[in-house]
Amino acid sequence: MGYDPEKHQRRSIRLKGYDYSQPGAYFVTTCLQGHEPYFEMPEVRNIVEDAWKALPQRFPTIELDEFIVMPDHIHFILNLHPDHKNRPTLSNIVNAYKSLTARAALSHLRTIGDICGNQFWQQHFYDHIICNNTELLAIRKNIRNNPPSRFFTPSPLASTTTPAPAHSHHLARPTPNVGKQSASQYALSEYAQ
Fold first, then answer.
1. CATH code assigned at 185
2. Residues near 92 by beta carbon (within 8 Å), at least 6 away in sequence
3. Residue 148: how many CB atoms within 10 A of its CB?
4. At what angle do helices 183-191 and 133-144 cross, to 10 degrees?
5. Is residue 7, in this structure, part of any structural domain at all?
6. Residue 130 lies in a domain
7. Residue 66 forms part of a structural domain
């Protein structure tokens, strides 16, 4: 079967019309391809943790906040503080992170004989634009309280005092019908182990 642009067109899951390079706090979840629990391996966990800590060297206008590694996915909060020279989008940052960690992790997995294919991360990632300090604090709490396990790795770089920027023109994103859960609680519960 050949390529059919009607059937095989990727739909963006980003908020239509929103500028993801503008200042703000963003909650992100990204999962491993096939939900393989590769983060149970200390070497692979170290790769993603070290790359997280090194992100500000590559993107000097970002600030790291909460970060947690679960067996097959990660959650984190990034703060963007773009200037006139550096305006990376959230996708630029997440895709660079995923590319760097995937290459290193796949190389390690192949070295130890794990048949892992060519894709480490799922193609898409979940994001949520954090609108205010109350929401930021709630998402931080959810990340910290994500099902405690031996895999829990809270970021030592997490800030508990940085307020979320006020988005004066925040665009509401439709969220699944999850009752009284907020979108961030839904995302955390959806990926919780």
1. 3.30.70.1290
2. 59
3. 8
4. 20
5. no
6. yes
7. yes
pLDDT digits (tens, 9 = 90+) for 24-49: 999 999 999 999 999 999 999 999 99
Model pTM score: 0.73
Residue 80 lies in a domain: yes
Q: Cα–Cα distance between 179 and 104 in angstroms, integer? A: 40
> DSSP E strands: which ranges in the chain?
24-31, 62-69, 73-80, 126-130
Residue 82 is part of which domain span? 24-168+176-191
pLDDT confidence bin for 16, thresholds 50/70/90: confident
Nearest to 10 by CA among 145, 122, 176, 155: 122
Q: Closest Cα to residue 182, out of 135, 137, 127?
A: 135
Are 109 and 47 in contact, with CB atoms under 8 Å apart?
Answer: no
Count of the separate structural domains present in the chain? 1
99, pLDDT greater than 50: yes
Write down the pLDDT at residue 11.
Answer: 55
